Protein backbone atom coordinates (compact mmCIF):
# COMPACT_ATOMS: atom_id res chain seq x y z
CA UNK A 1 0.00 0.00 0.00
CA UNK A 2 2.81 2.42 0.81
CA UNK A 3 4.30 1.99 -2.68
CA UNK A 4 1.04 1.42 -4.64
CA UNK A 5 2.13 -2.16 -5.21
CA UNK A 6 -1.42 -3.52 -4.99
CA UNK A 7 -2.93 -0.83 -7.19
CA UNK A 8 -3.16 2.97 -6.91
CA UNK A 9 -3.08 4.02 -3.24
CA UNK A 10 -5.27 7.06 -2.41
CA UNK A 11 -2.54 9.26 -0.93
CA UNK A 12 -2.14 10.65 1.65
CA UNK A 13 -2.19 7.25 3.31
CA UNK A 14 -1.56 6.55 6.98
CA UNK A 15 -1.26 2.81 7.64
CA UNK A 16 -1.85 0.67 10.74
CA UNK A 17 -4.23 -2.28 10.56
CA UNK A 18 -3.62 -4.32 13.71
CA UNK A 19 -5.04 -2.15 16.47
CA UNK A 20 -5.42 -2.91 20.17
CA UNK A 21 -6.82 -0.50 22.74
CA UNK A 22 -9.70 0.15 25.12
CA UNK A 23 -13.21 1.03 23.99
CA UNK A 24 -13.94 4.62 25.06
CA UNK A 25 -17.26 5.11 23.25
CA UNK A 26 -19.78 2.52 22.08
CA UNK A 27 -22.78 3.06 19.83
CA UNK A 28 -26.22 2.25 21.21
CA UNK A 29 -26.74 -0.57 18.68
CA UNK A 30 -23.50 -2.35 19.63
CA UNK A 31 -24.15 -5.41 21.80
CA UNK A 32 -20.79 -7.21 21.81
CA UNK A 33 -18.58 -4.43 23.25
CA UNK A 34 -18.89 -2.17 26.28
CA UNK A 35 -16.88 0.86 27.37
CA UNK A 36 -13.65 -0.23 29.03
CA UNK A 37 -13.28 -3.50 27.13
CA UNK A 38 -9.85 -4.22 25.67
CA UNK A 39 -10.57 -4.69 21.99
CA UNK A 40 -8.92 -5.20 18.64
CA UNK A 41 -9.48 -4.23 15.01
CA UNK A 42 -7.87 -6.02 12.10
CA UNK A 43 -7.42 -5.18 8.44
CA UNK A 44 -11.14 -4.79 7.70
CA UNK A 45 -13.28 -1.99 9.14
CA UNK A 46 -16.60 -2.42 7.37
CA UNK A 47 -18.71 -4.43 4.92
CA UNK A 48 -22.27 -4.12 3.66
CA UNK A 49 -23.48 -6.93 6.00
CA UNK A 50 -26.35 -7.53 3.56
CA UNK A 51 -24.96 -9.37 0.52
CA UNK A 52 -24.94 -13.16 0.17
CA UNK A 53 -21.26 -13.34 1.15
CA UNK A 54 -21.74 -11.31 4.32
CA UNK A 55 -24.79 -13.34 5.30
CA UNK A 56 -22.83 -16.56 4.75
CA UNK A 57 -20.10 -15.42 7.12
CA UNK A 58 -17.73 -14.36 4.35
CA UNK A 59 -17.77 -10.59 4.90
CA UNK A 60 -14.03 -10.61 4.19
CA UNK A 61 -14.95 -11.05 0.53
CA UNK A 62 -17.73 -8.44 0.43
CA UNK A 63 -17.46 -6.29 -2.71
CA UNK A 64 -18.17 -3.23 -0.56
CA UNK A 65 -15.56 -4.04 2.08
CA UNK A 66 -13.63 -1.12 3.60
CA UNK A 67 -10.06 -1.66 4.73
CA UNK A 68 -8.87 -0.23 8.04
CA UNK A 69 -6.57 2.11 6.11
CA UNK A 70 -6.22 3.28 2.53
CA UNK A 71 -9.90 2.76 1.63
CA UNK A 72 -12.59 5.14 0.42
CA UNK A 73 -15.87 4.84 2.34
CA UNK A 74 -19.13 4.26 0.40
CA UNK A 75 -19.93 7.99 0.45
CA UNK A 76 -16.93 8.40 -1.88
CA UNK A 77 -15.59 11.23 0.28
CA UNK A 78 -14.08 9.89 3.50
CA UNK A 79 -10.97 7.76 3.75
CA UNK A 80 -9.86 5.26 6.36
CA UNK A 81 -6.67 6.25 8.16
CA UNK A 82 -5.69 3.21 10.17
CA UNK A 83 -4.53 2.82 13.72
CA UNK A 84 -1.33 4.87 14.10
CA UNK A 85 -3.44 7.28 16.12
CA UNK A 86 -4.81 8.13 19.53
CA UNK A 87 -8.33 7.04 18.54
CA UNK A 88 -9.89 4.84 15.90
CA UNK A 89 -13.58 4.46 15.04
CA UNK A 90 -14.68 1.16 13.51
CA UNK A 91 -18.04 -0.53 12.89
CA UNK A 92 -18.94 -2.69 15.89
CA UNK A 93 -19.20 -5.84 13.77
CA UNK A 94 -15.44 -5.66 13.13
CA UNK A 95 -14.30 -5.03 16.70
CA UNK A 96 -13.39 -8.07 18.81
CA UNK A 97 -12.62 -8.55 22.50
CA UNK A 98 -9.08 -9.56 23.46
CA UNK A 99 -8.96 -12.49 25.93
CA UNK A 100 -7.40 -11.61 29.27
CA UNK A 101 -4.65 -14.21 28.92
CA UNK A 102 -3.18 -12.53 25.82
CA UNK A 103 -0.92 -9.50 26.18
CA UNK A 104 -1.81 -6.55 23.96
CA UNK A 105 1.49 -6.61 22.08
CA UNK A 106 1.02 -10.31 21.33
CA UNK A 107 -2.60 -9.86 20.24
CA UNK A 108 -1.94 -7.02 17.79
CA UNK A 109 -0.05 -8.91 15.05
CA UNK A 110 -2.58 -11.74 15.20
CA UNK A 111 -5.38 -9.43 14.04
CA UNK A 112 -4.17 -9.50 10.43
CA UNK A 113 -0.97 -11.52 10.17
CA UNK A 114 -2.22 -14.28 12.44
CA UNK A 115 -5.69 -14.69 11.02
CA UNK A 116 -4.38 -14.54 7.44
CA UNK A 117 -2.88 -17.99 8.00
CA UNK A 118 -5.32 -19.23 10.66
CA UNK A 119 -8.33 -18.88 8.35
CA UNK A 120 -6.99 -21.01 5.45
CA UNK A 121 -5.59 -23.58 7.86
CA UNK A 122 -9.01 -24.11 9.45
CA UNK A 123 -11.00 -23.84 6.22
CA UNK A 124 -8.78 -26.45 4.56
CA UNK A 125 -8.84 -29.05 7.29
CA UNK A 126 -5.64 -28.56 9.27
CA UNK A 127 -5.76 -30.90 12.25
CA UNK A 128 -4.97 -34.43 13.43
CA UNK A 129 -3.98 -36.75 10.61
CA UNK A 130 -2.73 -33.93 8.38
CA UNK A 131 0.77 -32.90 7.34
CA UNK A 132 1.07 -29.17 6.67
CA UNK A 133 3.76 -27.14 4.91
CA UNK A 134 4.30 -23.42 5.50
CA UNK A 135 6.18 -21.69 2.69
CA UNK A 136 8.02 -18.55 3.80
CA UNK A 137 8.63 -18.37 7.53
CA UNK A 138 8.41 -14.66 8.30
CA UNK A 139 5.77 -12.38 9.78
CA UNK A 140 2.96 -14.51 8.35
CA UNK A 141 4.72 -17.85 8.11
CA UNK A 142 5.84 -18.04 11.71
CA UNK A 143 2.17 -17.75 12.69
CA UNK A 144 1.47 -20.58 10.25
CA UNK A 145 3.82 -22.90 12.11
CA UNK A 146 2.44 -21.88 15.53
CA UNK A 147 -1.21 -22.32 14.56
CA UNK A 148 -0.76 -25.51 12.51
CA UNK A 149 0.79 -27.15 15.58
CA UNK A 150 -1.86 -25.72 17.90
CA UNK A 151 -4.61 -27.08 15.63
CA UNK A 152 -3.15 -30.56 16.05
CA UNK A 153 -1.50 -31.27 12.70
CA UNK A 154 0.53 -34.49 12.82
CA UNK A 155 3.52 -32.86 11.13
CA UNK A 156 4.39 -29.28 10.26
CA UNK A 157 7.11 -28.50 7.75
CA UNK A 158 8.68 -25.05 7.48
CA UNK A 159 9.87 -24.18 3.97
CA UNK A 160 12.15 -21.25 3.21
CA UNK A 161 14.95 -20.38 0.82
CA UNK A 162 17.96 -20.43 3.15
CA UNK A 163 19.08 -22.39 6.18
CA UNK A 164 19.44 -19.32 8.41
CA UNK A 165 15.92 -19.76 9.83
CA UNK A 166 16.15 -23.49 10.48
CA UNK A 167 16.78 -23.23 14.23
CA UNK A 168 14.04 -20.62 14.66
CA UNK A 169 11.47 -22.67 12.78
CA UNK A 170 12.19 -25.81 14.77
CA UNK A 171 11.92 -23.79 18.00
CA UNK A 172 8.52 -22.52 16.81
CA UNK A 173 7.41 -26.15 16.78
CA UNK A 174 7.98 -27.37 13.23
CA UNK A 175 8.85 -31.03 12.81
CA UNK A 176 11.02 -30.45 9.74
CA UNK A 177 12.64 -27.64 7.77
CA UNK A 178 13.38 -27.46 4.06
CA UNK A 179 15.81 -24.88 2.63
CA UNK A 180 14.89 -24.79 -1.05
CA UNK A 181 17.98 -22.82 -2.06
CA UNK A 182 20.47 -25.03 -0.22
CA UNK A 183 19.06 -28.53 0.36
CA UNK A 184 19.98 -30.80 -2.55
CA UNK A 185 17.11 -32.61 -4.30
CA UNK A 186 14.62 -31.24 -1.77
CA UNK A 187 11.65 -31.52 -4.11
CA UNK A 188 12.27 -35.13 -5.09
CA UNK A 189 13.04 -36.25 -1.54
CA UNK A 190 9.83 -34.69 -0.17
CA UNK A 191 7.48 -35.40 -3.06
CA UNK A 192 3.87 -36.19 -2.12
CA UNK A 193 4.38 -35.75 1.62
CA UNK A 194 2.03 -32.82 2.41
CA UNK A 195 -1.76 -32.60 2.59
CA UNK A 196 -1.86 -28.80 2.72
CA UNK A 197 0.54 -25.97 1.88
CA UNK A 198 0.01 -22.37 2.96
CA UNK A 199 2.25 -20.07 0.92
CA UNK A 200 3.09 -16.69 2.43
CA UNK A 201 5.78 -15.80 -0.12
CA UNK A 202 5.17 -12.77 -2.34
CA UNK A 203 7.28 -13.50 -5.42
CA UNK A 204 6.70 -14.45 -9.03
CA UNK A 205 10.09 -16.21 -9.03
CA UNK A 206 9.35 -18.89 -6.41
CA UNK A 207 9.67 -22.55 -7.53
CA UNK A 208 5.93 -23.13 -7.82
CA UNK A 209 6.10 -26.43 -9.72
CA UNK A 210 8.40 -27.88 -7.07
CA UNK A 211 6.16 -26.63 -4.25
CA UNK A 212 3.13 -28.28 -5.86
CA UNK A 213 5.06 -31.54 -6.22
CA UNK A 214 5.23 -31.74 -2.42
CA UNK A 215 1.44 -32.26 -2.22
CA UNK A 216 -0.12 -35.67 -1.85
CA UNK A 217 -2.75 -36.69 -4.36
CA UNK A 218 -5.77 -34.49 -3.68
CA UNK A 219 -3.68 -32.01 -1.68
CA UNK A 220 -4.32 -28.28 -1.50
CA UNK A 221 -2.07 -25.25 -2.07
CA UNK A 222 -3.35 -21.93 -0.69
CA UNK A 223 -1.71 -18.63 -1.61
CA UNK A 224 -1.89 -15.82 0.96
CA UNK A 225 1.22 -13.82 0.06
CA UNK A 226 0.31 -10.88 -2.19
CA UNK A 227 3.15 -9.79 -4.51
CA UNK A 228 3.22 -6.32 -6.00
CA UNK A 229 1.29 -6.54 -9.24
CA UNK A 230 -0.19 -9.89 -8.18
CA UNK A 231 1.87 -12.06 -10.54
CA UNK A 232 2.73 -15.64 -9.61
CA UNK A 233 4.80 -18.21 -11.50
CA UNK A 234 2.95 -20.05 -14.27
CA UNK A 235 1.40 -23.40 -13.37
CA UNK A 236 1.53 -26.24 -15.88
CA UNK A 237 -1.82 -27.94 -16.32
CA UNK A 238 -0.25 -31.39 -16.06
CA UNK A 239 1.10 -30.49 -12.62
CA UNK A 240 -2.52 -30.16 -11.48
CA UNK A 241 -3.99 -33.01 -13.50
CA UNK A 242 -1.37 -35.66 -12.78
CA UNK A 243 -1.62 -35.19 -9.03
CA UNK A 244 -5.29 -34.24 -8.62
CA UNK A 245 -4.31 -31.20 -6.56
CA UNK A 246 -6.12 -27.93 -5.90
CA UNK A 247 -4.72 -24.39 -5.92
CA UNK A 248 -6.54 -21.53 -4.22
CA UNK A 249 -6.19 -18.32 -2.27
CA UNK A 250 -7.33 -16.73 0.97
CA UNK A 251 -7.83 -13.16 2.22
CA UNK A 252 -7.35 -12.22 5.91
CA UNK A 253 -10.19 -13.61 8.08
CA UNK A 254 -13.61 -12.78 9.47
CA UNK A 255 -14.22 -11.27 12.92
CA UNK A 256 -15.54 -14.66 14.05
CA UNK A 257 -12.35 -16.35 12.89
CA UNK A 258 -10.30 -13.69 14.71
CA UNK A 259 -12.21 -14.44 17.90
CA UNK A 260 -11.70 -18.20 17.47
CA UNK A 261 -7.98 -17.68 16.78
CA UNK A 262 -7.51 -15.47 19.84
CA UNK A 263 -9.26 -18.04 22.03
CA UNK A 264 -7.02 -20.79 20.63
CA UNK A 265 -3.98 -18.62 21.38
CA UNK A 266 -5.22 -18.03 24.93
CA UNK A 267 -5.98 -21.72 25.52
CA UNK A 268 -2.68 -22.98 24.06
CA UNK A 269 -0.45 -20.18 25.35
CA UNK A 270 0.65 -19.18 21.85
CA UNK A 271 3.11 -16.28 21.80
CA UNK A 272 4.24 -14.71 18.54
CA UNK A 273 7.87 -13.69 18.16
CA UNK A 274 7.75 -9.89 18.26
CA UNK A 275 9.86 -6.79 18.84
CA UNK A 276 8.01 -3.91 20.53
CA UNK A 277 9.07 -0.41 19.48
CA UNK A 278 7.69 3.04 20.39
CA UNK A 279 5.27 4.60 17.90
CA UNK A 280 7.74 7.44 17.30
CA UNK A 281 9.98 4.88 15.55
CA UNK A 282 7.30 4.01 12.99
CA UNK A 283 9.31 5.36 10.06
CA UNK A 284 12.47 3.52 11.11
CA UNK A 285 10.46 0.35 11.60
CA UNK A 286 9.35 0.55 7.95
CA UNK A 287 12.97 0.94 6.84
CA UNK A 288 14.07 -1.99 8.99
CA UNK A 289 11.14 -4.04 7.70
CA UNK A 290 12.27 -3.45 4.11
CA UNK A 291 15.71 -4.76 5.14
CA UNK A 292 14.12 -7.99 6.39
CA UNK A 293 15.11 -7.42 10.02
CA UNK A 294 11.91 -8.37 11.93
CA UNK A 295 12.03 -11.68 13.81
CA UNK A 296 9.21 -11.90 13.19
CA UNK A 297 6.86 -8.94 13.72
CA UNK A 298 7.41 -5.33 14.74
CA UNK A 299 4.76 -4.03 17.13
CA UNK A 300 4.43 -0.28 17.68
CA UNK A 301 3.38 0.93 21.12
CA UNK A 302 1.64 4.29 21.47
Q: What would you say this structure looks like, in words?
A:
25% of the residues lie in helices and 22% in strands. With 302 residues, the chain is an alpha/beta fold. The protein has 2 domains: 1-102, Alpha-Beta Complex (Quinone Oxidoreductase, Chain A, domain 1), CATH 3.90.180; 113-249, NAD(P)-binding Rossmann-like Domain (Rossmann fold, 3-Layer(aba) Sandwich). The strands form 5 sheets. It has a 6-stranded parallel β-sheet. A 3-stranded antiparallel β-sheet has the order 1-2-7. Helix 3 (113-123) crosses helix 4. The longest helix has 14 residues, at 255-268. The radius of gyration is 19 Å and the shape is globular.
How is this fold's topology laid out?
Elements (H helix, E strand, L loop, with lengths): L18 E4 L15 E4 L2 E3 L5 H4 L10 E2 L1 E4 L6 E3 L13 E3 L6 H4 L5 H11 L7 E5 L5 H10 L4 E6 L5 H7 L3 E4 L6 H4 L4 E6 L8 H6 L1 E9 L13 H5 L4 E4 L5 H14 L5 E5 L3 H9 L6 E5 L1
Parallel strand pairs: 8-9, 8-11, 9-10, 11-12, 12-13, 14-15
Antiparallel strand pairs: 1-2, 2-7, 3-4, 5-6
| Anisotropy-based shape | globular
Q: Based on the structure given, which CATH architecture of the largest domain is correct?
A: 3-Layer(aba) Sandwich
Question: How large is the count of helical segments?
Answer: 10
| Structure class | alpha/beta
Q: Proportion of β residues?
A: 15-25%
Give the low-pLDDT segments: none
State the separation between the terminal residues, measured CA to CA: 22 Å
Please identify the top-level CATH class of the largest domain: Alpha Beta
Radius of gyration: 19 Å
Q: How many domains comprise the coordinates?
A: 2
Portion in helices: 10-25%
**CATH topology title of the largest domain:** Rossmann fold
Largest sheet: 6 strands, parallel
Calculate the mean pLDDT score and round it. 96
CATH superfamily grouping of the largest domain = NAD(P)-binding Rossmann-like Domain
Order of helices and strands: EEEHEEEEHHEHEHEHEHEHEHEHE
Amino acid sequence: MLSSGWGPTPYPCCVGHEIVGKAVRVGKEVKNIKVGDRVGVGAQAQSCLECVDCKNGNMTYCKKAVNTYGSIYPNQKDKSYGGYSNYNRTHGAFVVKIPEKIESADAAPMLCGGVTVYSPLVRNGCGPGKTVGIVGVGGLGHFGVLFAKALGADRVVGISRKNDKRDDVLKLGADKYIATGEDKDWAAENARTLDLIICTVSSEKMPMTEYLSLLKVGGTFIQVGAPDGGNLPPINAFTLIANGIKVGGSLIGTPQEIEEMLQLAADKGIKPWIEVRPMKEANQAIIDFEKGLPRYRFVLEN
